[in-house]
Amino acid sequence: MANERRLGTGLKALLDRVGGNYSSEPEVVNISGARTVPSHNKINTAKIGANPFQPRKVFDDASLEELANSLQTHGLLQPITVRQVGEYYQIIAGERRFRAALGLGWSEISAQILEKDDRQMAELALTENIQRKDLNAIEKAVSFANYLETYGGTHEELAKRLEIDRSTVTNLLRLLKLPQQLQDAVCQEQLSPGHVRSLLKLPEQEQIDVAAKIQVEDWSVRETEKFVQELSRVGETENPKNPDQTWNLIGKDGKTRAVVPQSEQVQQLEQNFRQCLGGMKVKLTQTNDKGKGKLVIAFANHAEFEEVYATICGVQRAVS
What is the CA radius of gyration of the chain? Predict the structure, then answer.
């Protein structure tokens, strides 16, 4: 059955590593009709609660209904896994199966009981969910951040414990630097992680503005990346393969002009302008070796414009 998935290799390896002795063998009916069942317990569903470290916050109703239909037709082929906390139990693996069983009105469910501490529970929950396509990137990122805040460690160390690439951890955590409304857009599948990762290079307001363009104009990730690159350069500039050669700058009039690569002195001047203007985006372009060039200052609102005006002109502008 499509929705009655076995544990991924990462979760099974982690269960084995922390002493789970997990058996993924389903119930088998032999020729005589006798049933051979792995060692597990029937537990009252009223005594079972979710894993407190579960990164999944949203469960798709249609998917759960499909899984419930499978359980009703074929039964539970793989017991859920729980730990005991006093007189109650917390799910380690199998919350979707448990929720589907509740939907069918089951009063008890087959479960394997393991002894796990909080850190192991957190790691098991992360490992079970990290490969699922229906768990959104922000949920994964938040769970990583919560784990690192609670237990410490580096991105590399967490990746090793979960048996995934370090880049997976780092790229997901970077998404939490986005404005909340863009994180919400990822959760609601209005924007993909690839789209919003491209926006991280921009100031917050530009991230929001460009995100709106992406949705209205239905840009691909590649189109978004290209636009952000152009926006960051304040002009469609191609980096030279040889730093001694000139660049090609395409102006708004469509004409191509030779541009001298930015020197360390120009870079420092840009930085000085940014500091003077309170961190605003500044682009200083030198178009030839005689000192000709262009200074572009980007402002996001009226207040920033007034700040630029006052800094350059030395006086506050009279606004009617």
Answer: 28
* Amino acid at position 14, single letter: L
> What are residue 84's DSSP bridge partners?
89
- Distance in angstroms (rounded) separating the CA atoms of residues 144 and 185: 19
Domain residue spans of the chain: 9-131, 139-233, 242-313
The predicted structure's pLDDT at residue 192: 93
252 or 290, which is more confident?
Answer: 290
Predicted confidence band at 133 (pLDDT cuts at 50, 70, 90)?
Answer: low
Q: What is the pLDDT of residue 39?
A: 46
Of the candidates 155, 151, 157, the residue with the CA atom closest to the CA atom of residue 121 = 151
pLDDT at 45: 94
Q: How far apart are CA 60 and CA 235, in angstroms?
A: 44
The closest alpha carbon to 182, from 156, 212, 160, belongs to 212
Could you tell me the two tokens for 28? 């088998």
Catalytic residue, from 25, 66, 95, 306: name it: 95
Nearest to 112, CA basis, from 11, 37, 18: 37
pLDDT computed for residue 132 by the predictor: 61
95 has catalytic annotation = yes
Residue range 202-217, pLDDT digits in tens: 888 889 988 988 988 8
133 alpha-carbon distance from chain centroid: 12
Angle 95-103/61-74 helices, nearest 10 degrees? 80
Give the architecture (CATH level 2) of 139-233: Orthogonal Bundle (1.10)
CATH of domain 9-131: 3.90.1530.10
| Calpha distance 130→55 (Å, rounded) | 9
Any bridge partners for residue 111, and if so which?
41, 80
pLDDT score of 274 more than 70: yes
Residue 46 · residue 98 · CB < 8 Å: no
Residue 9, pLDDT above cutoff 60:
no
